[in-house]
Amino acid sequence: MTLSRVYVIPHGDEIISMPNEDARVMNGKIKEVTRGDDADTIAIISPHFLRVSSGVAVINTNYVSGEYKIKRRNIKGHYRVDKDLNSRILGSSRYFVETIFVTTEGRLSNFPLDFGSLIPLSFFDVDTVSVMGQWRAYHPKILRRLGALLYQAVSSSRSLISVVFSADQAHAHSRSGRYGYDPRAREYDEMIINSIKDNDFRELAKVKDEFIEGAKPDSFWLMLMFSGFVDRGNLRPVFHYYYVQRYFGMMLATAV
After folding, report:
1. Of 61, 163, 180, 235, which one is least surrounded by beta carbons within 10 A?
2. Is 209 exposed, middle or buried (0-12, 13-18, 19+ CB in 10 A)?
3. For the whole prediction, is pTM greater than 0.90?
């Protein structure tokens, strides 16, 4: 059928537990932009899912499922995998790498889901997914190309697909945070927000490895794929909300 919607959704626990006003606003904004999404399948890429050195891991089991506890709430998910969409993605480039767990068919063909997938998926009413990991290789041109190929695979699918780039931003905003403080964290997040608002990712594609190491985002590689995706689809990114949760940035964006 065709592409339904495109999102960049954060996956910090706080968007579920909502300990402060910013988190409550973010939760409401995510519910607002995902409301009425009637996609048959959610294709989601998470930086905390399976990572392989040769490319983007595409989980091609029959099912994926998991559970993640956030304070008093348990997020659970059990989904069927969209094998048709996976076939289109895997056939588009050798950098999309098929991965299997236990067996290819049957009840035991079930891969564990990470919190970076479970948290964004909790905002959707969907039974079928395609789940991918992040390729943390410094290849901006290839990553942008993979984003374009993902758009083509989604657009040629027989199902209605929404795509989620699950990403938190820089993780070095506070000296008391897990990764300490680095001024490049603020620079990085401002660059991402401006790239979204201006629909211009050229500066992001030129960022050096050392800068990324200092800012400590988990979004850099996915945002490059996002830029290739929206460029190939002639889509316009839309910025919705951003705030810093203690030491890491969380941003919500869509593309139309």
Report:
1. 180
2. exposed
3. yes
For residue 9, the surrounding DSSP H or E stretch is strand 2-9
Domains of the chain: 2-255 (3.40.830.10)
Task: Examine the pLDDT at 172 and tell me if it is beyond 90.
Answer: yes
Structure tokens at 242: 């951003």
User: Quick one: pLDDT at residue 1?
Assistant: 59
Task: Give the β-pairing of 248-255 and 237-245.
Answer: antiparallel
- Measured CA to CA, the distance from residue 40 to residue 45 in angstroms comes to 17
Q: What pLDDT is recorded for position 72?
A: 81
Widest CA span in the chain:
50
| Cβ neighbours of residue 75 closer than 8 Å, sequence gap 6 or more | 16, 67, 68, 69, 115, 118, 119, 122
What mean pLDDT do residues 43-57 have? 96
What is the 3 state secondary structure string of 15-37?
HHHCCCHHHHHHHHHHHHHHCCC
Q: Residue 207 gets which letter from DSSP? A: -
Mean pLDDT of 19-33: 98
Going by C-beta distance under 8 Å and a sequence separation of 6 or more, which residues neighbour residue 78?
A: 63, 64, 65
